[in-house]
Design goal:
Keywords: ANK repeat, Repeat. The protein is an alpha+beta fold. About 15% of the residues lie in helices and about 30% in strands.
């Protein structure tokens, strides 16, 4: 089996970035407006995906991941949902106030719907047993210090995929 490279998945209201964990180069970047949906697999809850549209080719692409933990996949889907909500609220605010398309880095406001709490706390690191590397991905969260206690709508989260 081919070894899967380690990447960082960065999710914000602007979009999703795949970053090479070894050299920090951006592998792929998807703007939030080009992501049409995101979901967990109903039969395998550790698997999640999102669909993007390439504006140049007009093709759609499905990006599928298998998380090491079901709760981690759930947390990522919630984060993507928060990113959609923040982007939508910022677009409404910009349209209402007649602001330019430049948006602030963080947006402190209450979402229109309550955000469910994650089933588990955020992990900072995970040790992987080499004999259990059957899964496609392991997604430990990397969170900025102080962000664990205050999880507002600023949806700048990163995760590492193996």
């Amino acid at each position: 089996m081919k070894k899967v490279p380690t990447i960082i998945l960065s999710v914000s209201y602007k979009g999703v970035k795949f970053i090479d964990a070894t050299n920090k180069n951006i592998i792929a970047e998807h703007e939030i407006r080009n992501i049409s949906c995101a979901a967990q697999d109903p039969e395998d809850l550790s698997t999640f995906a999102y669909i993007t549209k390439d504006l140049k080719s007009n093709h759609h692409y499905c990006h599928v991941f298998t998380a090491f933990d079901v709760n981690l996949a759930y947390e990522i889907i919630l984060t993507l949902g928060q990113a959609f909500e923040v982007a939508y609220q910022l677009a409404l605010q910009a349209r209402k106030g007649g602001h330019s398309s430049t948006l602030p880095e963080s947006f402190e406001n209450k979402p229109s719907k309550p955000i469910p709490k994650p089933r588990v706390s955020i992990r900072k690191s995970v040790q992987i047993d080499p004999s259990e590397q059957k899964t496609l991905a392991n997604l430990p969260w990397i969170v900025e210090p102080g962000q664990e206690a205050k999880r507002g709508i600023n949806t700048k989260y990163e995760t590492t995929i193996f």
